[in-house]
Amino acid sequence: MQPAVAQYVLFAAAVAILAKPTGLYLLFVFEQKEPWWAFERWLYRAAGVDPASEMTWAQYARAFVYFSLLGTLFVYAVFRLQDHLPFGPAASALTTPVTADLAANTALSFATTTTWQGYAGETTMRYATQLLGLASQGFLAGGAGLAVGFAFLRGFARAESPTLGNFWVDVTRAVIYVLLPLALLVTPFLIWQGVPMNFSAYTHLTTLEAGSQTIAQGPVAGLEAIKNLGTNGGGFFNTNGAHPFENPTGLTNFVELLAIVAVPAGMPYAFGRATGRREAGWSLFAVMAILFVVGLLLLHWAEGAANPRLASLGVVGGNLEGKETRFGVVGSVLGAAVTSNGATGSYVAMHDSFSPVGVLVILVNLLLGEIAFGGLGTGLYGLVMVAVIAMFVTGLMVGRTPEYCGKSLGIREMKYVALYTLLVPAVILPLSALAVSLEVGRAGLTTNAGAHGLAEILFAHASCAANNGMSMAGLSANTPFYNATLMVSMVAGRFGLTIPALALAGCLASRRTRPRSVGAVPSEGGMFVAIVLGTAMLVGALTYFAVLALGPVVEQLALVRAP
């Protein structure tokens, strides 16, 4: 077996094996009727929360928004006050000023799990800022996303219920029973593999050529584990997971990527068990797996081939530009596939150097809403939204009452789904058009223009709307214009999608669950998988084909036709 095939197969097998036990554990955590640890009960008493009191979807959504707003304000305050915080590095090493617009953008970014970074971490943030402000949001914002995912799941699992659970209970359990134990497992492993965990000053060296070099370090492992587990993705260093102190070996690369996918991959199984339709859960997992594998193979084909212009000069081999030699094409491709599907911008290669087809695949993953596994909670409800569209259209086509998993789909439900589907393109496409139309937007294209420049701008807004944070790194986005417009994309992706998803769940939870019938369109099996895949591709193509044609498609045609 070829090394590439072996690594891809091993990763896919690990995800598939972990899906069932992870889903069972998530059900155990979130469906407990009573707190089962004294510390959990103490937290509820200290916060004045009654764990037995449940919320309607509107109350749940308000709590989620308030929680995210408080997180944003907290991180903003940490950034603005970081000069007064303890620990290193020395002030002389911090060369990037944390302006008000950068602080606001970054605070919202981490509080929404976007982690868009318009700065270099090692030259901007103190150690206390990285841990207190950024790592904390990996737990809190990630836990909030997982809580919303389970509230959405309850909408299909419950019948004639006015409530979806208690947000404060759900987010507490997500942090202390899911994210914290996993982080305590992954962090020592990373330290063992060579990821630093210290508060030492930066090391200044003299090279053999008599030049000077500064080696940044710090409590890296404390941020690295939770940024992946919480599908947050903020890098301690500017080059993120491509930096040898964040991701030193092929083994750490594999484990960190697996940490991104493991919990989201368990959500479909939890959905199937909670609704009493295990086949439906496995069918959702199959859709995720097919989308992931197809994208992975396309990426491997695109990056495994030599640049056509270099091939004409006799240069053979894969596209290694912008890739770490310790990972090569295989590890870099796997990293790009996982992070673009996993709502985690923890990139391990510079996507600006990917081939146009490679960029196209990553963009499609982002624009489809990262429904192949996705983020904590968001991947599940993003895919279920596509499944609801598929079942509604199919039911109308065959003359059946539209339903999914025993829940009838009426006008009210489809309005929420339509809002969910149309909101993001209604935000990112005009913002991208505005950026390429104005001089202040084009000024960020310091290295590329034309089709590639358009792809960079679209990539930035798509990444922020997907709450991902990965970038093509060719766009200088630390300006008031981009800090503001990208914040709009973040808000649309986090709150503009979560609220309609919770509203849909609230409607469905109040309905009766219909028993299975022979005449109903099946919500599981091969035909269901094919319908959902076709719906995802069709909706994505109708929405984004024009802008993708003007960006990476035009660039690829110019590349292969150039003399």
Strand order in space, largest sheet: 1-2
Task: Tell me the distance between the termini.
Answer: 37 Å
Biggest β-sheet, characterized? 2 strands, antiparallel
Helix content: 55-70%
The counted number of beta strands is: 4
Q: What is the strand content? A: under 5%
What's the overall average pLDDT, rounded?
90
What is the H/E string?
Answer: HHHHHHEEHHHHHHHEEHHHHH
Low-confidence runs: none
Round the Cα radius of gyration to an integer and report it.
23 Å
Alpha-beta content class: mainly alpha
Describe the structure.
The protein has two domains: 18-275, no CATH class; 380-561, no CATH class. It is built from 18 helices and four strands. The chain has helices at 3-30, 38-47, 57-80, 100-111, 127-157, 167-193, 220-229, 250-275, 278-304, 308-311, 328-341, 356-367, 378-397, 411-437, 439-442, 450-465, 480-509, 526-561; strands at residues 203-206, 212-215, 403-404, 407-408. Helix 8 (250-275) packs parallel to helix 11.
List the keywords.
mainly alpha, 563 residues, 2 domains
Give the secondary structure arrangement, pairings included.
Elements lengths: L2 H28 L7 H10 L9 H24 L19 H12 L15 H31 L9 H27 L9 E4 L5 E4 L4 H10 L20 H26 L2 H27 L3 H4 L16 H14 L14 H12 L10 H20 L5 E2 L2 E2 L2 H27 L1 H4 L7 H16 L14 H30 L16 H36 L2
Antiparallel strand pairs: 1-2, 3-4
Helix pairs in contact: 1-8, 3-4, 3-5, 3-17, 4-17, 5-6, 5-7, 5-8, 5-13, 5-17, 6-7, 6-8, 7-8, 8-9, 8-11, 9-11, 9-12, 9-18, 11-12, 12-16, 12-18, 13-14, 13-18, 14-16, 14-17, 16-17, 16-18
